[in-house]
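Hi again,

Forgot to attach this to my earlier email, sorry! This is the prediction with retinal bound. I've pasted everything inline since the attachment limit keeps bouncing my files.
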Amino acid sequence: MDALSPFQYELVFNMLSLTVAGMAAAGLFFFGSRTEVGSTYRPALLVSGIVVFIAGYHYLRIWESWKAAYELVGGQYVSTGVPFNDAYRYADWLITVPLLLVELVAVLGLTKRESGPLLRNLTIASVLMIALGYPGEVATDAGTKWLWWALAMVPFIYILSVLFGRLNAAAANESGEVKRLLGRARGIILVSWWVYPVAFALPMLGLSGGAAEAGLQVGYSLADLTAKAIYGVVIYQIARAKTVSDQDEAKRFEPIAA
Ligand SMILES: *C/C=C(C)/C=C/C=C(C)/C=C/C1=C(C)CCCC1(C)C
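Structure tokens for the complex follow:
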């Protein structure tokens, strides 16, 4: 492991700490606001809460591993000999990425016949994406890293194109607030998901050891906060807006009292 400057080490340390706090706060919010949405959308909030709970736990472990991996020697943070464990994050993604897709499908209100095959395909693609990325993450030479990066990009592009197709189709059937929020969910997925392959590539793009490691850790943490906690808030907003519009619709069909 390359040595880190105190700034690089502390930046990552503080970012990991912030991510633990952000996930915990988001979890409390999602569990606490479940009853504010109609029963159809409650599973979406439950899954949002589970996702940030799992991620918060893993970030706690990543943070512990970060602390154990480096020590301050002569003004620089150098390896203690205990390797930093990157596998926590990949284990986390393996569980949370399919669940994030479940959240979205749950809030779109698709029929079981539509949502079953959709979720199956997206889950297979996300497991493939993460499994193909991991050998590249732990490899040290640029050629090997690029190979696994390129392979993982195939399911990545597939997932994004399917999600965008679905979100656009859902938005076309909606109006007003719900339509606007579906656009927001699309924007958040687009911006946060692209951070992963870019952060992964930092060590291959000529950044020096310490800077690449710090950039990667900060990039993944910010992306995870956005793709899980902030995204979950938008899922909640969509569920709220749909609950209100479902109530309006129900009122329209209420028989008028004689
Ligand atoms: C909450 C966690 C999320 C949303 C994680 C998403 C992870 C990715 C989109 C990872 C993608 C990767 C590539 C497209 C290529 C390089 C390897 C990965 C796994 C970092």
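The first strand starts at residue 70 and ends at 73. The mean pLDDT is 94.

That should be everything now.

G.
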